[in-house]
Amino acid sequence: MNNYYSIIAPAKLNLNLFIKGKTKNGLHLLESDICFLELADKIFFKFNQKDIFLQKFKNESLQIDVENNLILQSLNAFRNLTGWNKKFEISLDKYIPIGAGLGGGSADAAATLILLRKLYNMEGNSRQISISDLYEIANKLGSDIPACLESKDLKLSGYGNKIRRQKVSNNYYYLLVNPKIKLSTKKVFTQFNFQSEQKLINKKSLLDNITIYNSLLEPAIYLAPQIKSILTILKNIPNIVTYGMSGSGSTCFGIFNDIKNIINIHKYFKDDYFIWFGKKRVYSVNRVRYSKTLENKF
Q: What are the catalytic residues?
């Protein structure tokens, strides 16, 4: 019972985001092709006498509210569904930027639900929790969380609740550039205007058969002008395949055929920007691991 159970919570990348309409209750209808990256948070759970939340982060921009966050909300929602009142020491190793259009909070929530299901079902409770049960919780917690339960190449529609699998090539390398500006998804959507939307599809707008485009680019640039500067730099980097902005921003991405074209990329951007590069991955729901010690002690 003293083991630490851990799970990876990968970042989500919107290769495109098309706003298609708006429902009567104010939800935006969208279409989006997404994949998940090697960039990931890591969450540790250990059975404990009381709930404790700890966090490790490289800088203050990665700090979340330790008393009210999607990990704790997921834990409470799981308890409400199951009546299971086990207490935990929870440790979050945070790497995904916050308010960056990479679904970091949603990824943490989905990973928490997957881990809790594993621990609950291991106890041999009479009612085993299914993946469908997790989707029931996820749909109530946030529109991105069901997709993060999958953590695979996906095509989203509806308000993000309609999910189907697809295939994104594994041959590319992904560069992320974030100006360390947190953008509120709600504020970006509020700035969006169907009538004034300009299709700013760049000349390198295709990744195989996937169009790279984002309906929220214009409102995101209005709130964070640095995004436009980053995209201009990306456009002019030699050998880039395509580039764009993920989700509601402020993270921009570039896609390359060869990692050699990315290794010295820092010289193009400000020193204080968040920069990451690596590959996409397809994640299994069976990715909970355990150990007797906490990795990278908090």
A: 12, 144
Q: Which two tokens stand for residue 153?
A: 């190449």
CB 92 within 8 A of CB 71: yes
| Amino acid identity, position 187 | K
If one counts every other C-beta atom within 10 angstroms of the C-beta of residue 10, the result is 26
Q: Which residues of 150-174 are buried (b: 16+ CB within 10 A; e: fewer)?
A: bbbbbbbeebbeebeeeebeeebbb
Instruction: Measure the CA–CA gap between 289 and 94, rounded to whole angstroms.
Output: 18
Q: In the CATH hierarchy, which fold is given to the domain comprising 170-281?
A: Alpha-Beta Plaits (3.30.70)
E-assigned strand segments in the chain = 4-14, 16-22, 28-48, 52-57, 87-94, 154-157, 162-165, 173-178, 206-207, 210-211, 213-214, 240-245, 252-256, 274-278, 280-281, 289-291
Domain residue ranges in the chain: 4-164, 170-281
Per-residue pLDDT tens, the chain, 298 aa: give them.
Answer: 578 999 999 999 999 999 998 888 878 899 999 999 999 999 999 999 999 999 988 888 899 999 999 999 999 999 999 999 999 999 999 999 999 999 999 999 999 999 999 999 999 888 999 999 999 999 999 999 999 999 999 999 998 889 999 999 999 999 999 999 999 999 999 999 876 665 554 444 889 999 999 999 999 999 999 999 999 999 999 999 999 999 999 999 999 999 999 989 999 999 999 999 999 999 999 999 998 777 665 4
Q: Please state which CATH number belongs to domain 4-164.
A: 3.30.230.10
- Same topology between domain 4-164 and domain 170-281: no
* Model confidence, pTM: 0.94
